[in-house]
Specification:
alpha/beta; 2 domains; 3-stranded parallel sheet; 14% strand
């Protein structure tokens, strides 16, 4: 199930192609694009052109938002297992075959694999964590997924009945509805891990995640989400995991602040720093924030040097002309 909203045609084409290259046939797999009220016909046009009648297309008359769009995908899914693949992510060769094999070998109701994180040009930037050397059920996974967001939608398949039993993704969440769902699943069901790298999550400036970072809406939602999901544990265990989660997300906020400082400017970067401090005052976070200001001073110093050179270059001809 491929949710879309104002997709880039080249990204969606890559997404659909990556699925169709592994297509076991309509009797084995439903492939459907679920468009969440896009402002143009890109999603339908690419689906018709690349899907060639194999890929179904459904269009919502109004935009319902991220979590509601994913819930609509689950509602429309007919298979026993649901894979929600975003419009700019891809699956790598063997994804469906290996996850099906793991489903047949275990009692897990959710199976995820390692994934690569790529930039807008498709170049890999990093790999997700290797949670175990061989495929199998993860021990104490609920605690680990509570402390960190470790799964991207592109890398996981979940039994449809589990989504239905748990009540779907929470519509009030705009940044981390997936992280909350993975925790809810882990609190009640076994989760299986496949160590092969079989999916690719794409980072780019036009994604919903990137837009939420500009005003630190992501860090605000994370704070609320941590308070919510701690109730999925006993009070003492929840407090320990909450501290770990806040520290992990604070570190991520500082990392995002450095990126924004270089690519966008100081104001959105500073919002992330404030968000990081509201999450954690851990010494490690304070040291990273200090390094952020060092980077800012270096950038300002470089700009000052360029300004002074430009002034000197413009003043030399005027003196020569006199």
């Amino acid at each position: 199930m491929i949710p879309t909203y104002n997709p880039r045609s080249n990204f969606l084409e890559e997404t659909l192609t990556s699925v169709l290259q592994q297509d076991p046939g309509p009797d084995q797999m439903q492939i459907e694009v679920v468009d969440d009220g896009s402002n143009d016909d890109t999603a339908s046009e690419v689906t018709r052109r690349v899907g060639a009648g194999r890929v179904m297309f459904h269009h919502e008359s109004e935009n319902q938002g991220l979590a509601n769009s994913w819930n609509r995908c689950v509602e429309r899914a007919r298979g026993d297992w649901v894979h929600i693949l975003h419009q700019d992510d891809i699956v790598l060769p063997g994804f469906y075959d290996l996850l099906r094999k793991r489903a047949e070998e275990s009692h897990a109701v959710a199976i995820f694999c390692r994934h690569a994180i790529a930039n807008s040009n498709g170049h890999w930037l990093q790999l997700s964590e290797l949670h175990r050397e061989s495929a199998g059920q993860l021990d104490d996974w609920h605690a680990k997924i509570t402390a960190q967001q470790l799964i991207q939608c592109a890398a996981i398949a979940v039994r449809r009945t589990v989504y239905e039993q748990l009540g779907g993704f929470l519509p009030q969440l705009h940044y981390v509805p997936d992280w909350e769902m993975w925790q809810r699943i882990a609190s009640q069901f076994p989760v299986c891990f496949e160590p092969s790298i079989l999916a690719c999550y794409r980072l780019h400036s036009n994604s919903a995640t990137s837009r939420l970072r500009l005003d630190a809406a992501d860090t605000r939602e994370v704070r609320e989400m941590i308070d919510l999901t701690m109730t999925y544990h006993t009070p003492s265990r929840g407090r320990v995991l909450a501290k770990k989660a806040r520290s992990w997300w604070a570190e991520a906020a500082v990392f995002h602040a450095r990126e924004l400082l270089v690519k966008v400017g100081f104001t959105p970067a500073w919002r992330q720093i404030v968000g990081a401090l509201r999450l954690s005052y851990d010494r490690r976070i304070i040291r990273k924030i200090f390094s952020f200001f060092v980077l800012w001073l270096r950038i300002m110093g470089a700009r000052l040097k360029r300004w002074m050179r430009s002034k000197l270059n413009t003043s030399v001809p005027s003196q020569a002309s006199k």
